[in-house]
Amino acid sequence: MSRPTGRHCAAALLPAQWLSWLSWLPWLWLSLALLVACAAARPALAAGATEAQQVERGRYLARIANCAACHTREGGKPFAGGLPIRTAVGTLHSTNITPDAATGIGAYTLAEFDRALRQGVARDGKRLYPAMPYPSYARMRADDVAALYAYLRAEVAPVTQRNPAPQLRFPYGMRSLLSVWNLLFLDDGPVRTEPARGDAWNRGAYLVQAVAHCGACHTPRGRLFAEKGLDERSRHFLSGASVEGWSATNLTGDQLTGLGAWSRADIAEFLRTGRNGHATSFGPMSTVISTATQYMSAGDLDAVAAYLKSLPGARGEDKPFRPDPATAQQLHQGRFDLPGARQYAVFCMPCHGADGKGFARVFPPLAGNPTVADPDPASLVNLLLDGAVTARVGTAATDYHMPGYGWTLDDQELASVLTFIRRGWGNRAGPVTEADVAARRRALAAQR
After folding, report:
1. Which end of the chain has fewer CB within 10 Å, C or N?
2. How many angstroms separate the CA atoms of 217 and 247, rounded?
3. DSSP secondary-structure letter at 139?
4. Architecture of the 51-160+174-185 domain
């Protein structure tokens, strides 16, 4: 009788019933591997939260982070991407973040989604351009990232859609350079807390700096397109910037061009409704309010307002606006001595009044309006050329449209009426030139 060797030797020493169990080991290992993979794909729940609660929290975060607005092209499927984003160095398109396995995030694990959101690196290792505000999302908490991931995978319909390749000037199209950019500019530390400031201030700081990524539009950028400041310690943070031909206003405490004259309640009202006693929304901000901030809870709106009201003025404007009645007197008397006065009386005065005070919460005041006083007149030029619409919100019966006058007024006439507005009623902003209007008219025509 020959002596068994190798595995036969081991088998000869085991009872027969053990051999039947051993035959199932490969299947047991496979089942265990699948369980581990499923556990890795499933986001960890916050303490005491159910899966339904986590998804609902993710839905709220997706709204206030305004994910749909950037990741949905006009007429397209929600979150399927394809929205053109025009930058100073070319055009790129937002990505598909539906749970489609081939073209979206359906194959992403939570860790891979987290890396894309907070570090700007896709599942395949491709670097994302910082037009996607991952420098802000880098400061989001891990449990909020997990909730957002859970919502996108559970509630968003998958869409198969590949989007156009970016068209960027050399060398900005070289994704490999973004690894160096991240080393220089990506701060993935948590949002700084200050216990002495209270819960509302700290919650507002987290929302403004991370989730709502306000700095992505309202903070100026340097030559390499990084934000010049990431929080209140920088004098540049939220001090105003240019975005796709619009002037994103100063959100610091400056009295004339910032929020210095607004109360905490004024800020919350504007974010909820798109209007208050000082201003009415227009342009890209109307979209932000319609799709994002109107859905913020009352507590979060107050927290954002508390944080913004704590920011010192970036431009040193410590004296409040002082109205001057001379402009209203001249208009009431039918005197059109100043260039632009006649055009103002015909096209603007029926809504905004001879006194420039408008009609609160419908037609905004022009006297003392931060957008009117902004050193950059880009938004005003856009408004006069193409018109605008207020935010579409659940708190108002309808939105309001301001007509554009680019079709009936030439560049010099538009420049004159804008200069009249920026210097009337006590406003002290600089003039608008014919060249300013002509350049913006050409840019808008190229986008159509």
Report:
1. N
2. 9
3. T
4. Orthogonal Bundle (1.10)
Upstream peptide bond of 84 is cis (omega within 30 degrees of 0) = no
Cβ-based neighbours of 175, under 8 Å, separated by 6 or more:
126, 127, 129
**Interior/surface letters 60-72, b for 16+ CB within 10 angstroms, e for the rest:** bbbbbbbbebbbb
Phi then psi for 85, rounded to 5 degrees?
Answer: -120, 110
Q: Which H or E element spans position 306?
A: helix 298-309
- φ, ψ of residue 355 to 5 degrees: the values are -90, 0
DSSP-derived secondary structure letter, 345: I
- Cα separation, 358 vs 114, in Å, equals 47
What's the distance, Cα to Cα, between the start and end of the chain in Å?
A: 91
Q: Look at residue 29 and tell me whether its pLDDT is greater than 50.
A: no
Cα–Cα distance between 407 and 226 in angstroms, integer?
A: 37
DSSP string, 210-266: IIS-THHHHS-B-TTS-BS-SSTTSTTTTS-EEETTEEEPP-SS-TTTSSTT--HHH
Contact by Cβ (8 Å): 118, 137: yes
Q: What is the mean pLDDT of the chain?
A: 89
| Percentage of the chain lying above the pLDDT 90 cut | 82
Tokens standing for residue 298: 């009352």
Structure confidence at residue 360 (pLDDT): 84
For CATH 1.10.760.10, list the domain ranges present in the chain.
195-447
- Is 52's pLDDT higher than 60? yes
CB count, 10 Å around CB of 136? 25
Q: For residue range 210-237, list pLDDT tens digits in order.
A: 999 999 999 999 999 999 999 999 999 9
DSSP-derived letter for residue 197 is: G
Q: Which CATH code, of 1.10.760.10, 2.40.30.10, 3.90.226.10, 3.40.640.10, is assigned to 195-447?
A: 1.10.760.10
Beta bridge partners of 363: 359
Residue 81 has pLDDT above 60, yes or no: yes
Nearest-angstrom CA–CA distance, 424 and 106? 56
CA 319/CA 127 separation, integer angstroms: 46
pLDDT tens across 156-175, in order? 999 999 988 999 999 888 99
Half-sphere exposure of 30 (CA within 13 A, CB side): 5
Q: pLDDT-derived band of residue 25, with 50, 70 and 90 as boundaries?
A: very low
Amino acid at 230: L
